[in-house]
Amino acid sequence: MPVTIKDVAKLAKVSPSTVSRVISDNPKISNETKKKVFEAMKKLNYYPNAIARSLANKSTKTLGLILPNTEEDLFINPFFIQAMRGISVYAQKKGYYIMYTYSNNEKEEINFIKNYIYSKWVDGIILLTVRENDKCIEYLKDSEKYPFVVVGRPEKSDGILWVDNDNFKAMYDVVNYLINKGHRDIAFIGGPHTLNVTRDRLDGYLRALKVHGISVNEKFIYEQVDFTEIKGYEAMMEILDYKEPSAVVTTDDLIAFGALKAIREKAINKIAVVGFNNTPLAEYQQPKLTSVDIKAEKLGYYAAKLLIGKLENKNIETNHYIIDTELIERESTL
C-alpha cells in the first residue's frame, strides 16, 4: 500500500495537519519539528508529489548548488570557488540567492536533491559535475521537470540545460601542440574515469596520438580516484619508474602540481607538463606551469543564466553553452 501523510505523522509523532504545514513550509512550524517530519518522510520514502505540484508557482528566489566535495576538500580545488563566483555574480544581478551543500558521494547528493525539491527551499538546482550513468541527473529528469542545470556534458543532453568546455578538443589541441614541438612519449594523468570530463579529455589525447601515427603506450596512461596533488605525485612516480616521458598532460592543475613535485624529486629537467584550469598557483610552480584556462567563472555564470532564464520563462534560444578554452603557456620546459 502507498505511504500516506498519516503514516508520516505517526512515525514523526505529530498530527497529519502538521505534516501538511511542514510540506508547505509554514513559518510557524519549528525547525525541530520540520527535521522530524523530513526524517520520517525520508525513512518511509514518501514524496508529496501532488502537494509539490500545488506549490509550483511559489518562488523562493534561491538556487540550490550541489558541490561534489567533502567539507575538507571543498576549498582545495579552485575550480569550484571560481565556478561559484560566476554563479553568484549572475544570480545577484538577477536578485537570486544561493543555497549550497556539499556531499561525500552520489547517494548523498540525491538525498540533498530530494530535500531541496520537496521542502521547496529552492526554485532550481545547479550540479557541478557529471558522472557516467549520472543518477542525480536521472532523478531530476524524472522529478516532474524540476528546473536544473549541469556544469559538464551530460551523456544524454535532450531536455537538459548544461554548460561545458569542448574537453575533447581542448585536450586534442594540447597534445597536438606538444607533438608539433617534437614530443612523442607523452603521458596522461587524469581524474576518475566515471566523470565525463576525464573520458572526454582522454579521448582527445588518444585521438591526437592516432592522427599523428603515434602508438598508444598504456603504461603512460593513469586515471586516479580524485583530482589531488598526492594522486598526481603517485601516478608520476609510477610513470618515471617505468620510463621517462618527454611530456605529461594532466586533466587538472592539482594533478599537475603533484607530477611536477615527483619530477623535481627525481631531478629531471626536461619533461614538459601541462595542466587544466589555470589556477592562480600555476604561475608560482617551479617551473611555472603551462595550463589550459577553462574559464571556470564563465562556466558558472552561464549555468546560472540558463537556469534563471528557465525559471523566469525567458525564450531561451539554446539549452547549452560551450565555453572556449585558452592555453596559457609558461615555462614548463615545453
TrEMBL record:
Domain HTH lacI-type residue range list: 3-57
User: What's this protein's name?
Assistant: Transcriptional regulator, LacI family
Q: Which Pfam families match?
A: LacI, Peripla_BP_3
Keywords (alphabetical) are: DNA-binding, Transcription, Transcription regulation
Organism for this UniProt entry:
Caminicella sporogenes DSM 14501
> Which molecular function terms from Gene Ontology are attached?
DNA-binding transcription factor activity; transcription cis-regulatory region binding
| Entry superkingdom | Bacteria
